[in-house]
From TrEMBL:
Belongs to the FHY3/FAR1 family. Putative transcription activator involved in regulating light control of development. Its main location: nucleus. One of its GO terms (cellular component) is nucleus. This is Protein FAR1-RELATED SEQUENCE. Keywords: Metal-binding, Nucleus, Zinc, Zinc-finger. The lineage of its organism: Eukaryota, Viridiplantae, Streptophyta, Embryophyta, Tracheophyta. It comes from the Eukaryota. Residues 556-589 form the SWIM-type domain. The keyword Signal does not apply.
Length: 679
C-alpha cells in the first residue's frame, strides 16, 4: 500500500470496549491492498471518531448514513447486543457497510425452487460500533469502534443515489403517483412530470421507475373478494351522484363478483350518433386480478376515438361474452351497431351471432397483424418484410377475384401451403380482408392511422390500474381527459380556414356541412374525380380513369330521387362519396351533394342543449362541465363565418352583463374551485 493510501486508512477501536472486528462469522477473508479502494476525501469533522457522542442510536445511524452517502456506499444495521446478554436492555449496536458479510448460496428443492440471484455482499469490514453509556448521568451513545477500510470500489456521487438505502418515496410523492395512475399516464411520463414539478434534472429524483412500478404493484396485491365488494360500492356511489351512470353485474353461487359492465352518460349520448361501427377489444387483462377486460370504442365525426363502455369478466366463455353483449345493448337502449370489429376469438364470435345476429361481424386487422412476428418471422426469415408488404397489398384490394388470385400466388411464392396460420387466415378471409367488407360501414377504422389512434386510446385505460375498486373511476378520468383533448383538437380543426381546391359548388357546399376531418376525405375524392371520364350506358354510367381504355366502375344514378350508388362501395364502407359518383354528379350538372350522402355522423354537429340539460345532474361541478361543453359548441359554431362571430360576440356580452347582476350563492362560493378547474 502506498504511503498516501496508508494515511487515509482509518481504523479506530476503543480499548475499553474491545470486541472482535469480524462482523460475520462466515466471513474471514483478509483484506489486501490490491482489493481496496479507500473512502473519498471528507472534512475531518464529518468523519466518525472514537468517543463521538449521540443522544440516541438513531441519531448515530443518521450521522453514519450521511457520511456513507458522501463517501460512496450505504449502511445497514448489523447486530445488537445487551450487556452480558442477560436482560439489561440494548447496550451496543453495529452499523456496517451494505456489502458486509457473505450470502450463502441457496439450494433449491423440488417442492420450492430458489432463484440464486447475485448478491452485492463481499465481506467488507467497514463498520461503526456504538455503545450505551451513563457516565455523565443521562444515557447517551458513544462511538467505540470505527473502520473505514473497504475491499470494493466506492461509488461516485451520481451513482450512490441509486443504492436502495437512498431511494425513498415520500408520502406526498406516493399520493402524487397514485393520482397520476388514475389518469392512465405511463410510469415514464410520471417521472418526467415529477422532475419538472421538483425542478430536478432528468434521473435525479430520489426514486427510480422500478420503485414506482413496485409501489403501484403493492396496491394491487389485495384480497380479490374484498376488492370486488369495494368495486360494487364504488359503482353504487357513482350512480347516486350521477343517475345517468349505468352498470350491471352478476354474482356466482358463492356470492362473489363474476362479471361487471358499465358506461357513462356521455358515452351513451355519443353512441346514439356514432355507434354505427364499434370496436370491441377483448385482448387485454387486468393483470393484477387476472380478469379479461373488454372495451367498446368508436370514431366520432372528427375522426377521434370515443369511449362507449367497459366490462370485466370472470372468463372468456360464450356465456360470459353473451352476458357482456346483453348488458351493453341494455345501456344503449337496445340499439345494436351496424358493424362490430373484434379479435379472432371463437367464443366471442359465437356470442355475437347469438346476441346481435343482424350486426356485421369483422376481425380487427391490427389485432391480426400484431401476431405476425410470432407466426411468420421464424418461418420466413429475411423474406418476412417482403411477405408482409405483399399481404397488405392483397388486404387493400377492391376485387374479390384479384384477392383470390393474389393469395394463391403468394402462398406458392413463399411456400406457405401447409402453414396453419395461413390456412386459418384464408378460411376466415371474409371477416378481415377488405374485398369482402367494402359493402359494410366501418367508419375508416381499418386504416393504419385510425388503428393506431384507437389502440393508443385503449392503452390509456390499461395503464390506469392501481386498485380494482378504483378502476371504474380511473377509466372515467381517462375518458374525461381524452374528451377534453378531443374538444381542443376539434376547436383547432374548426378554427382552421378550409382551403377549397376545385372551386366546384359541391365542394363549397360540403365544406359548410361536414367536419374538417370528413371534408378532407371528400375533398380528396373531388380532386381525383377531375381525372375520370364518365360514359352513359344502358343502366347507368361507366366511370374510369382518363388514361384507361378498359375497365372502370358502374355508377347508378336516379336524379329524381336523389339516389346514386357505385360498384366500388366506398360510400357504404366509409360514408364518403367516391370519385366515380362525384364525377357523374358533376357531369349531370348537380351543384350540391344530395343530403342523404352527407351523413349525420360526419356533420358539424354538437349535442343539442335540450338533450344535455335533460341528462345533466344537479351537482355543481357537473353543471360547470356541461357549461364548458356548451361554450365549446358556441366557439365551434361561431367560427364558421364572420357574421356568426359578430352575433356571438354581441350576445355573449349581453349574457355576461346579466350574469354579473346575479347574486353569488354560498354553494357557488364553495364550488368555485371546481368551476375554475372545469372552465
Amino acid at each position: 500500500m502506498s504511503e498516501e493510501a496508508g494515511s487515509m486508512l482509518v481504523v479506530y477501536d476503543d480499548p475499553s470496549d474491545q470486541r472482535s472486528l469480524s462482523l460475520d462469522d462466515a466471513s474471514s477473508a483478509e483484506e489486501s491492498p490490491d482489493e481496496t479502494r479507500l473512502s473519498l476525501e471528507t472534512s475531518n469533522d464529518a468523519i466518525p471518531y472514537i468517543g463521538q457522542r449521540f443522544a440516541t442510536h438513531d441519531a448515530a445511524y443518521e450521522f453514519y448514513s450521511e457520511f456513507a452517502k458522501r463517501s460512496g456506499f450505504s449502511i445497514r444495521r448489523h447486530r445488537t447486543e445487551g450487556k452480558d446478554g442477560v436482560g439489561k436492555g440494548l447496550t451496543r449496536r453495529y452499523f456496517v457497510c451494505h456489502r458486509a458479510g457473505n450470502t450463502p448460496v441457496k439450494t433449491s428443492t423440488e417442492s420450492k425452487p430458489q432463484r440464486n440471484r447475485k448478491s452485492s455482499r463481499c465481506g467488507c469490514q467497514a463498520y461503526m460500533r456504538i455503545s450505551k453509556t451513563t457516565e455523565f448521568g443521562a444515557p447517551e451513545w458513544r462511538v467505540t469502534g470505527f473502520a473505514n477500510h473497504h475491499n470494493h470500489e466506492l461509488l461516485e456521487p451520481n451513482q450512490v443515489r441509486f443504492l436502495p438505502a437512498y431511494r425513498t418515496i415520500s408520502d406526498a410523492d406516493k399520493n402524487r403517483i397514485l393520482m397520476f395512475a388514475k389518469t392512465g399516464i405511463s410510469v415514464h411520463q410520471m417521472m418526467r412530470l415529477m422532475e419538472l414539478e421538483k425542478c430536478v434534472e432528468p434521473g435525479y429524483l430520489p426514486f427510480t421507475e422500478k420503485d414506482v412500478r413496485n409501489l403501484l404493484q403493492s396496491f394491487r396485491k389485495l384480497d380479490p373478494e374484498e376488492e370486488s365488494l369495494d368495486l360494487l360500492r364504488m359503482c353504487r356511489n357513482i350512480k347516486e351522484k350521477n343517475p345517468n351512470f349505468k352498470f350491471e353485474y352478476t354474482l356466482d353461487i358463492n356470492n362473489r363478483l363474476e362479471n361487471i359492465a358499465w358506461s357513462y352518460a356521455s358515452s351513451i349520448q355519443l353512441y346514439d350518433i356514432f355507434g354505427d361501427a364499434v370496436v370491441f377489444d377483448t385482448t387485454h387483462r387486468l393483470t393484477a386480478f387476472d380478469m379479461p377486460l373488454g372495451i367498446w370504442v368508436g370514431i366520432n365525426n372528427y375522426g377521434m376515438p370515443c369511449f362507449f363502455g367497459c366490462t370485466l369478466l370472470r372468463d372468456e366463455t360464450v356465456r360470459s361474452f353473451s352476458w357482456a353483449l346483453k348488458a351493453f345493448l341494455g345501456f344503449m337502449n337496445g340499439k345494436a351497431p351496424q358493424t362490430i370489429l373484434t379479435d379472432q376469438n371463437i367464443c366471442l364470435k359465437e356470442a355475437l351471432s347469438m346476441e346481435i345476429p343482424a350486426t356485421k361481424h369483422a376481425f380487427c386487422i391490427w389485432m391480426i397483424v400484431a401476431k405476425f412476428p410470432s407466426w411468420f418471422n421464424a418461418v420466413l426469415g429475411e423474406r418476412y418484410n417482403e411477405w408482409k408488404a405483399e399481404f397488405y397489398r392483397l388486404y387493400n384490394l377492391e376485387s374479390v377475384e384479384d384477392f383470390e388470385l393474389g393469395w394463391r400466388e403468394m402462398v406458392c411464392s413463399y411456400g406457405l401451403h401447409s402453414n396453419r396460420h395461413m390456412v386459418n387466415l384464408y378460411s376466415s378471409r371474409s371477416l378481415w380482408a377488405l374485398p369482402f367488407l367494402r359493402s359494410h360501414f366501418l367508419a375508416g377504422m381499418t386504416t393504419a392511422g385510425q388503428s393506431k389512434s384507437i389502440n393508443a386510446f385503449i392503452q390509456r385505460f390499461l395503464s390506469a390500474q392501481t386498485r380494482l375498486a378504483h378502476f371504474v373511476e380511473q377509466v372515467a378520468v381517462a375518458v374525461d381527459f381524452k374528451d377534453q383533448t378531443g374538444e381542443q383538437q376539434t376547436m383547432q380543426q374548426n378554427l382552421q380556414n378550409v382551403c377549397l381546391k376545385t372551386g366546384a359548388p359541391m365542394e363549397s357546399h360540403a365544406a359548410t356541412i361536414l367536419t374538417p376531418f370528413a371534408f378532407s376525405k371528400l375533398q380528396e375524392q373531388l380532386v381525383l374525380a377531375a381525372h375520370y371520364a364518365s360514359f352513359s350506358i344502358d343502366d347507368g354510367f361507366l366511370v374510369r380513369h382518363h388514361t384507361k381504355a378498359e375497365g372502370g366502375r358502374k355508377v347508378y344514378w336516379v336524379p329524381q330521387e336523389g339516389i346514386i350508388s357505385c360498384s366500388c362501395h366506398q360510400f357504404e364502407f366509409t360514408g364518403i362519396l367516391c370519385r366515380h359518383s362525384l364525377r357523374v354528379l358533376s357531369t349531370g350538372n348537380c351543384f350540391q351533394i344530395p343530403d342523404r350522402y352527407l351523413p349525420l355522423r360526419w356533420r358539424r354537429i354538437s349535442m343539442p342543449s335540450s338533450k344535455l340539460l335533460q341528462s345533466a345532474p344537479n351537482d355543481h361541478a357537473e353543471r360547470a362541465k356541461l357549461l364548458q361543453n356548451m361554450v365549446s359548441s358556441l366557439m365551434m359554431e361561431s367560427a364558421k363565418s364572420k357574421e356568426r362571430l359578430d352575433v356571438a360576440t354581441e350576445q355573449v356580452s349581453i349574457l355576461l352583463s346579466r350574469i354579473r347582476e346575479q347574486p353569488i350563492s354560498l354553494q357557488g362560493g364553495r364550488d368555485s374551485s371546481s368551476v375554475n378547474k372545469n372552465l
